[in-house]
Amino acid sequence: MVGIQHDVISDLRREHRYLTRLFSVLEEQMAVFNNGETPDYDLVFQVVEFLLDFPSRCHHPKEDVLYRILADSTANLPAGLTNLSLEHEELDKLTSRFSDMLASVLGEAGVARETVMKELESFTRYQRRHMQMEEAFFFPALESGLKPEDWDALAERITNPDDPVFGSTAAKNFIIQCERIARTADFELEN
Ligand SMILES: [Fe+2]
Ligand SMILES: [Fe+2]
Q1: Is 190 within a domain?
Q2: How many domains does the chain divide into?
Q3: What's the pLDDT band for 191 if we cut at 50, 70, 90?
Q4: Is the pLDDT confidence value at 69 over 70?
Q5: How far is the CA of 60 from the centre of ligand 2 (A)?
Q6: What is the CATH number for 52?
Q7: 162-184: pLDDT as tens digits
Q8: Among 87, 62, 74, which Cα is nearest to 163's?
Q9: How sure is the predictor about 1, in pLDDT bands with cuts at 50, 70 and 90?
Q10: Alpha helix (H) ranges present in 55-167?
Q11: Does residue 94 lie in a domain region?
Q12: What is the number of the ligand closest to the CA of 86?
């Protein structure tokens, strides 16, 4: 069971590294926009479309399931661990709002550059703070707090490649999509 536990948590950590890289790429492109030049909008929209889709389809649901099991089985959750599910809902809202705003910019709806950059800043700050909180408190709490029987209860889902949340196909698709974006835009996901 140690293997399954390790795989799930190391997948989550790798997804964070990839997401972090995508946020940096978004910020690099939006810095171009902030300088009054034209960013690679195709790349910006590929990243935003990915962020609208995959985290809410396979990263957050995995964390939500594990969080519920942890909350049920642990008497004392770490003080720094906030309600993940509520934060995931907020992340989804922020991502949609940022995406809509970018669409307005492209539609020349007269969104001020300053407003766009402020939205970007609050969007990426919330995302980063959320992931840092998970890395500091949630993943270690999973490693130390979930019991073998908790992982046993998930084993069927984790070992089923087609499980939409825990399956290896969903995890692989996450990586494939990130790598596709990185390849077309010629940047390294990990360096
Ligand atoms: Fe999360
Ligand atoms: Fe996460």
Answers
A1: no
A2: 1
A3: low
A4: yes
A5: 6
A6: 1.20.120
A7: 999 999 899 899 899 999 999 98
A8: 62
A9: very low
A10: 60-73, 84-106, 113-133, 139-145, 148-159
A11: yes
A12: 1
Angle in degrees, 0-180, between the axes of helices 168-185 and 2-34, rounded to the nearest 10: 30
> Ligand 1 centre and the CA of 154: distance in Å?
19
Establish if 76 belongs to a structural domain. no
| Distance from residue 25's CA to the centre of ligand 1 (Å) | 20
Q: How far apart are CA 133 and CA 127, in angstroms?
A: 10
Query: Could you tell me which residues come within 8 angstroms of residue 57 by beta carbon, excluding any fewer than 6 positions away?
Result: 164, 170
Q: How far is the CA of 119 from the centre of ligand 2 (A)?
A: 21
What tokens were used for 30?
Answer: 């939006």
Residues of the domain holding 116? 2-71+81-185
Please report which confidence band the pLDDT of residue 8 belongs to, taking 50, 70 and 90 as the band edges: very high
**Residue 14 within a domain:** yes
pTM of model > 0.90: yes
pLDDT-wise least confident of 25-39, 50-64, 71-85, 156-170 = 71-85
User: If residue 41 lies in a helix (H) or strand (E), which one and from where to where?
Assistant: helix 41-54
Residue 130, number of CB atoms within 10 A of its CB: 21
